[in-house]
């Protein structure tokens, strides 16, 4: 059986690194139990997010990733958006630099109409599901 080498820059490893950093810098969410309680995610799931190598490899040879809904809950507990936990600092810096080098891509054009946000089926004109 051939084992693929897992690249340490994949999302689970970036998540683990970012979560460890946030916990070390937080004054409130310093332990897995505290993160779990604040996010509604089980402590064992938080532990596995922090140790991606501990996840059991499936029969197909793939390492499972954490559930996106759990990552989202953990992000919210820290006051972040989910993408902020899943992007490494180097990639973020490169992405920001690239975006800033393209002034036409930053923000809406002046005078461009913005669509209204529809918050319910009633407002959208669609019939409610029965």
Write up this protein.
With 130 residues, the chain is mostly helical. The protein has a single domain (11-105), classed as 434 Repressor (Amino-terminal Domain). It is built from seven helices and no strands. The protein has helices at residues 11-25, 32-39, 43-50, 68-77, 82-85, 89-100, 121-124. Helix 2 crosses helix 3. The longest helix has 15 residues, at 11-25. It is globular and about 40 Å long. The relative contact order is 0.12.
Report the sheet with the most strands, covering strand number, pairing sense and barrel closure. Answer: none
- The second-level CATH architecture is Orthogonal Bundle
- The poorly predicted ranges are 1-7, 104-109, 117-121
| Structural class by sheet pairing and helices | mainly alpha
Helix and strand run: HHHHHHH
Compute the number of helices.
7
Under CATH, the homologous superfamily reads: lambda repressor-like DNA-binding domains
Estimated helix fraction: 40-55%
- The count of DSSP E runs of length 2 or more, i.e. the number of strands, is 0
Instruction: Give the overall average pLDDT.
Output: 77
How far apart are the termini?
A: 51 Å
Strand fraction: under 5%
Oligomer class: single chain
Radius of gyration: 20 Å
Gross morphology: globular
Domain count, please report it: 1
CATH names the topology as: 434 Repressor (Amino-terminal Domain)
CATH class: Mainly Alpha
Provide the fold topology.
Blueprint: H1 11-25, H2 32-39, H3 43-50, H4 68-77, H5 82-85, H6 89-100, H7 121-124
Helix pairs in contact: 2-3, 2-4
Task: Describe, in short, the structure shown.
The protein is mostly helical. The protein is built from 7 helices and no strands. The protein has a single domain, classed as lambda repressor-like DNA-binding domains (434 Repressor (Amino-terminal Domain), Orthogonal Bundle).
